[in-house]
Amino acid sequence: MGKKEGGESNEEENYTVTKVKEGHNLLGSPTFKPLDIGRFKCVETGHELLAHARDSYAQSKHCRLGLIDSALAKKKPPLNMFIQDPVSRSKLKCKLTGVTINKTEEHIWKHINGKRFLNKLEKMEAEKEIPNGALEKKGEEKEEKKKKKNKDDDLKKKKKNKEDGLKNVKKKKQEENGMFIAEMEDSIGNDVDLEEENEFWMPPVGDRWDHDDGGVREIDGTGEEGISLSS
Question: Which stretches are annotated as coiled coil (predicted)?
Answer without folding.
Answer: none
